[in-house]
Amino acid sequence: MFEDMVLIIAENATVGEFAALLKKFKEMGVTIKDTEVQENGDFTVKTDTKNPLNEESIQKLQIISRNISVKSSNNLNGKMRLPLSQSVVIVPWFPRQISELDAISNNVFMYGKDLDANHPSFKDETYRKRRIEFANIAYNYKLSIVYRELLKLYKTHACRECQENMPLLQKYAGYCEDDLPQLETVSKFLKTREFLQGLAYRVFYCTQYIRHEAEPFYTVEPDCIHELMGHVPLLANPEFAQYSQELGLASLGVGDEDVQKLAKLYFFSAEFGICKQDGQLRAFGAGLLSSVSELKYALSDDAIRKPFIPADVVEAECMVTAYQKAYFTTGTFKEAEDIVRHFVLQFKRPFAIRYNPFTESVEIVDNHKKLGVALEDIKAHMSALDDAIYQFTNSEKEEPWKPWKMGEPKKFD
């Protein structure tokens, strides 16, 4: 704790940095006692505070500018300088609570603003204007031919997980050829940076419009058929949901270059990924599962397919208004998750993060105390698993578990 301190502001500091510092003083209850210009041009500000400042408070001040350093007033000539360039790293803002996703939801888009001039929706001004209005009624739009054709193709082209979850979506989420389900119903069934940040919280941003009627079997931009027929069946699979969240968590706090790499990893897996199951190629990317024509093409002999190697994937070109020049294949979602997890270890950020599903928040782990708390939490989960393993193994040796059911809750008068 420091009763008072001196801030040294380098002569090349901007007026904006100094103004930001004064604003931070006000927020922290800091008052200025004296100011002085040094012979070397640096500007010193002597302060005192209503409450003693700790190291955390000093770090908040240092975030203001690289040209500001701090030391205590009784150590003015000492060596206790804490330049920001050595002690504090500025990372891109990211949401720490799920509620903060509201602030970025309007910024999420992948493509669609700049459509290719050859696409029918580019030339159809009436369609483009109506699409805003259709946001409220898109789910009543009947396009059963796409639904029926995709279901036929799924039997021979879609991955096992997609085929397993489609009957559940038909039973519980209103999937049928006569009507598109409401996103609210699907959400209840399931439970570029902003988009990836949403994935970190297991939040998936959906479009609300439908593709142009001139090309029902192919769309250059995501629509509600893309979301509901392509993404939802896979997001209902725990392994794929975990893979998507891993990509989202990896994007938090890293630089723009790393975010672009993650975006391509997502694009060529969750959007246009192909896996091998029982020796056969099967699509699991939503861009393929929602496009009759590209689904056929991607699994045909005409398409180029390569192994899912991150170093190659991040160099590939993302085709938005045409079929992909190449597709990437992997074995399972778990395999892709392990590959991506190993790849993102090279990303630089001054802390580790962990997702807390109970508070729906991202926890920053940047010191030994927080690491200890995280380890204790993991130990608690491991203890529960150990108990389950013990009960299960003992029951097999002694007496198998008997069928059971829950009794009625007690009634209190």
TrEMBL record:
Residues 79-142, 182-393 form the Biopterin-dependent aromatic amino acid hydroxylase family profile domain. The keyword Iron applies. GO terms for molecular function: iron ion binding; tryptophan 5-monooxygenase activity. InterPro entries: ArAA_hydroxylase, ArAA_hydroxylase_Fe/CU_BS, ArAA_hydroxylase_sf, Aro-AA_hydroxylase_C_sf, Aromatic-AA_hydroxylase_C. It comes from the Eukaryota. Gene3D superfamilies: Aromatic amino acid hydroxylase. SUPFAM superfamilies: Aromatic aminoacid monoxygenases, catalytic and oligomerization domains. GO terms for biological process: aromatic amino acid metabolic process. Fe cation binds at residues 226, 231, 271. The keyword Metal-binding applies. Keywords: Iron, Metal-binding, Monooxygenase, Oxidoreductase. Its cofactor is Fe(2+). GO terms for cellular component: neuron projection. Belongs to the biopterin-dependent aromatic amino acid hydroxylase family. PANTHER family: AROMATIC AMINO ACID HYDROXYLASE, TRYPTOPHAN 5-HYDROXYLASE 2. This is BH4_AAA_HYDROXYL_2 domain-containing protein. It comes from Hymenolepis diminuta (Rat tapeworm).
